[in-house]
Design brief:
AsnB_N; ATP-binding; 2 domains; ligase; glutamine amidotransferase; Ntn_hydrolases_N; 41% helix; 19 strands; alpha+beta; Glutamine Phosphoribosylpyrophosphate, subunit 1, domain 1
Length: 642
């Protein structure tokens, strides 16, 4: 993990100390050195955190021997060996070739097509003095962030963090209310906008080229939902999954410091930790560090029985901490939401992640493997039910539902009911004149609301007048309708999840949380090869024989303890979060939400008051109410700091 910055004065003005301020704003990303390069109207900067063995030989920004190219990069390249064999970069006096040197040689060979040849996580900028343009690229899923501001005929600036761009006086700081609405409306939105109108994100799998005479953004890769796999047997699929997953973990273990692993006891983090143990260098002196959050006072959130199953099977250097003792608001929000960066988007378990990263860093780790969102990569496979219902294959639908219900110990009708209503009753009832108006008018009475006894649901936080006035309602409808138009089955639903704006925002937020404490978070489930394989696998290997994520469970035979491999439930930190949110912050909640809110024009104040009163008076805060309070507090504190 590093930080990069670049600025190009399109009007020809020389770059001054702006580039120094830009990298200085990201000093937490560069404990191993901050350096800048400038020449005339162009400047590049770099904040170094040494994580791979080759990083100690990096000196960035890197100037090509001819002086024709300059590069700065935040990158881990996984296909190093193949690229070195193809590119034959200049021999570096007996030392290993660095990842940045490989990228630069790739650019010199393939030009702006070079990202197509790279595997790994990367964001980089190349100043091409011959062509007089700045070329920028971001990895396939957006693991490495890259933000930019482009002012017509004046400047183009790019950086790993928004706060870096805000160091430039010419960059306007006008708020983007549409992004605020996305957060309050729990909508992933697009993959380019930010909370400032003048600052945007280079989307995943895109390049951006900016010069005096040109400016373009090009998608160099896309995930293909039409690709299918046809192997001979389920054993072949399981073996292929295990091989790809092991490779994804192994590639992310290239580190010059001890490796850390998150270990929650769930399917994802346990798979990563166990695979990492199996592939680690057996001669290494340091054991893999694992870390878990446990809860003494909230047993509903405690996962010790599953964590113990992993620790009994493998020899880890393990640490645990009590989540009951962590305040999810203070000082956590002050640490992460400090102006003028970006607010949190609602990951209410981030306060636990932050503590885990901080603890591992104190123990000497610089790289932490995370099981982040394996659900999206592998898929629970419920799209198969929709696929069968949409095709009218009700006998097959009933067979899959029955197997799942028997396996999970739940009622088959409860699973089937939404599909029956949507695909059979819905099309008939919706044709009744005036039905939609009646449904809106009687919302809650007809059981449309969250069944939590409060009458508050997820759609109530965003002020409806603001949503309509700002155009957010129409924009959301348009995005969802376009997505639905292109969704016909399990693969399409999974593809939509994998490529949506919500995933990009979550990856950025998780990366930023780790970066604040000097940790590089790596995500094996977001390996391009593994994602492509899982998407192309047959639907019955995602939901089959009564099991979700069946291909994952089959593939982890001999790696995962059986107690976890065939685990039916899923951990839930929500219980602890709800309790801690209120118990540790009652006075602050009351004081903060009693004052006039800066976000009052964006939120439904009746909903905010109802959530506050429920939290402070009844002591029975629901999931919906807790997340509403978190969302309000996150944005409110950020705006006050801003």
């Amino acid at each position: 993990m590093s930080g990069i910055a670049g600025i190009y004065h399109l009007d020809g003005r020389p770059v001054d100390e702006e580039i120094d301020r830009m990298v200085g704003a990201m000093e937490h990303r560069g404990p191993d050195g901050i350096h800048t390069w400038r020449e005339g109207p162009v400047g590049l900067g770099h904040c170094m955190l040494e994580t791979t063995p080759e990083d100690q030989y990096e000196s960035l920004p890197l100037v090509d021997r001819t002086g024709s190219y300059v590069i700065t990069a935040d990158a881990r390249i996984d296909n190093r060996r193949a690229l070195i064999g193809t590119l034959t970069p200049p021999a570096p006096d007996g030392r290993p070739v660095t990842d940045t040197e490989i990228i630069l040689e790739a650019y010199k060979r393939w030009g702006r097509d070079c990202p197509k040849k790279l595997l790994g996580a990367f964001s980089f900028c190349v100043w091409d003095a011959r062509e007089q343009y700045l070329f920028c690229a971001r990895d396939h899923f957006g693991v490495k962030p890259l933000y930019y501001c482009q002012l017509h005929e004046q400047l183009f600036a790019v950086a790993s963090e928004v706060k870096s761009l805000l160091q430039i006086e010419a960059v306007p700081q006008t708020l983007n209310e549409m992004r605020i609405a996305d957060q309050l409306g729990y909508f992933g939105g697009d993959k380019e906008s930010t909370y400032f109108k003048s600052i945007r994100r280079i989307p995943p799998a895109h390049t951006k080229t900016v010069g005096k005479a040109q400016s373009d953004s090009i998608e160099y890769w896309s995930l293909d939902p039409g690709r299918t796999l046809n192997l001979d047997s389920q054993e072949d699929y399981a073996e292929a999954f295990r091989e790809l997953f092991t490779t994804a973990v192994s590639d992310r273990m290239r580190s010059q410091a001890p490796i850390g692993c998150m270990l929650s006891g769930g399917l994802d983090s346990s798979s990563v930790a166990c695979a990492a143990h199996q592939v680690r260098d057996k001669q290494a002196d340091d054991r893999i560090r694992t870390i878990s959050c446990v809860f003494d006072e909230t047993p509903e959130s405690d996962e010790r029985e599953y964590i113990s199953a992993v620790l009994e099977a493998y020899d880890f250097a393990h640490t645990s901490f009590r989540g009951d003792s962590i305040n999810p608001i203070y000082p956590f929000l002050d640490t992460l939401s400090g102006a003028p960066d970006v607010p949190l988007r609602g990951g209410a378990n981030l306060y636990v992640q932050h503590k885990a990263y901080d603890t591992l860093q104190s123990d000497g780790a610089r790289v932490v493997l995370s099981g982040f969102d394996g659900d999206s990569t592998v898929s629970h496979g419920f799209g198969r039910l929709r696929e069968l219902a949409e095709a009218g294959r009700w006998f097959s639908f009933a067979r899959v539902v029955r197997a799942y219900a028997e396996n999970m110990g739940v009622g088959a009708y409860e699973i089937a009911r939404p599909y029956l209503i949507h695909f059979i009753a819905g099309p008939v009832v919706s044709r009744i004149p005036g039905y939609q108006r009646l449904r809106r008018a009687t919302r809650g009475i007809l059981g449309d609301r969250e069944k939590d006894g409060t009458g508050i649901d997820q759609d109530d936080l965003l002020d409806s007048d603001f949503a309509d006035r700002s155009g957010w309602t129409d924009r959301k409808r348009s995005i969802l309708e376009e997505a639905r138009k292109n969704t016909t089955g399990q693969r399409d639903l999974q593809h939509r999840r994998l490529t949506g704006g919500g995933i990009v925002a979550a990856l950025e937020e998780t990366e930023r949380t780790a970066a604040l404490v000097g940790i590089e978070a790596r995500f094996p489930f977001w390996d391009r090869r593994l994602v492509e394989f899982c998407l192309a696998a047959p639907p019955e290997l995602k939901l089959g024989k009564g099991w979700t994520r069946r291909i994952h469970r089959l593939g982890m035979a001999g790696v995962l303890p059986e107690k976890i491999r065939w685990r039916r439930d899923k951990g839930n930190l929500g219980h602890a979060f709800r309790r801690q949110l209120v118990d540790a912050n009652a006075d602050r909640l009351d004081e903060l939400l009693s004052r006039p809110l800066r976000i009052r024009e964006y939120v439904d104040l009746d909903t905010v008051r109802a959530c506050r009163d429920s939290a402070l008076n009844s002591g029975q805060t629901t999931d919906v109410e807790a997340h509403h309070l978190w969302n309000v507090l996150t944005l409110e504190l950020w705006l006050r700091n801003l």
